[in-house]
Amino acid sequence: MIDHPTRLSLRDRRSVRNFDSAPISDRQLEAILEAARWAPSGRNSQPWTFVVVRDADLRSRLGVVLRRITWAWGAFASAPTMIVVSVDPALDPDHHVEDGAIAAQNLCLAAHSLGLGSAWAGVLGRRGGRRSVEGAIRRLLGLPAAHRVVAVIPIGGAARAGKSTRRPLAQMVHFDRFGSGPMPAGASAEAPATSVAGRG
């Protein structure tokens, strides 16, 4: 097994749905947002926008909107900070969704590297019209009508520790063609990781 801080963050990050009330410092927030800013994007289009929601009333109202798509909406609203990731399709018509998802993942990984927990509520719908969750979030936060909302990410101290597992590589990796031979011996013999609470 090859140990490296980046690899360990990738392996140990977990979705957290129980947060404590301790605020995130401005320095921590800047580091998290910087990680998202440096995400790769198609043709370096950088189509993302990040709305940082710290106001308690606004977080509560955002949580009520999220109630339509996740059972964990209350936990999301209890986090001291929520970051809404939206993208402008005009900046990258072909890959804006993937670009936004990569930036959102960077947010989560950076939060984990700082000892904080995060989760992910996928918001993007097929249409994203006014009656959708996307539309409600756009109106609540004053986002441009053309923006697509990719995700809402709560960030804060994890109030509970837990475990998670992954399927072995041998069940998901194919060489050259689907259904090819098994992984090389010992390649997928890694034990499940233990980290902060939640699934995923």
Beta-strand percentage? 15-25%
**Using DSSP, what is the number of strands?**
7
Instruction: Return the CATH class of the largest domain.
Output: Alpha Beta
CATH superfamily of the largest domain: NADH Oxidase
The gyration radius over C-alpha positions equals 18 Å
Number of domains: 2
Question: Low-confidence segments, ≥5 residues, pLDDT <50?
Answer: 191-199
Q: End-to-end span in angstroms?
A: 22 Å
Mean pLDDT: 87
Number of helices: 6
The shape, in one word, is: globular
CATH topology of the largest domain: NADH Oxidase
N to C succession of SSEs:
HHEHHEHEEHEEE
Helix-strand makeup class = alpha+beta
CATH architecture of the largest domain: 3-Layer(aba) Sandwich
Largest sheet: 5 strands, antiparallel
Percent in helix: 25-40%
What does this entry look like structurally?
- The protein has two domains: 157 residues, NADH Oxidase (3-Layer(aba) Sandwich); 30 residues, no CATH class.
- α2 packs antiparallel against α5 and α3 runs antiparallel to α6.
- The radius of gyration is 18 Å and the shape is globular.
- The strands form two sheets. Strands 1, 2, 3, 4 and 5 form a five-stranded antiparallel β-sheet that branches.
- The protein is built from six helices and seven strands; from the N terminus they run ααβααβαββαβββ.
